[in-house]
Design a protein that fits this description.
The protein is mainly β. The protein has one helix and eleven strands. The radius of gyration is 22 Å and the shape is elongated.
Amino acid sequence: MRITGGPLIPYYMGLRAVVDDDIPVAGGVYTAFMFKDKAILWNELPVNTEGGPLEFDRKPRQGHGGGVTEMVGRRHFVPHVPGTRFLDASSAGEFATDAELALAANWDRTASSVKHMTFIALKTTEA
């Protein structure tokens, strides 16, 4: 399949194949990940800043005397893996840190079976 003007995207048995030479390895065990379509979804959370998500800054002396208005937009995008739930067991702040997201204790599987998960980790001893 070729995207117009883009690179060839390899497929194997109808599944997209992405090659990564930086596969995680620990103690001689290699971990590869396999994803279904739409394995990771995105949502947007409201921005809790003074004045809301938009901020304007007027600079009247710029723009050859006509002035310039700068607008800053803030957005919080949150990834979500269907079939999982974040428990927030050890989050100290309003948002979880990367270290807190990495803790297995903060996650729960809500899918009724592993077969209903949108991705798997395939562990092998050969690269």
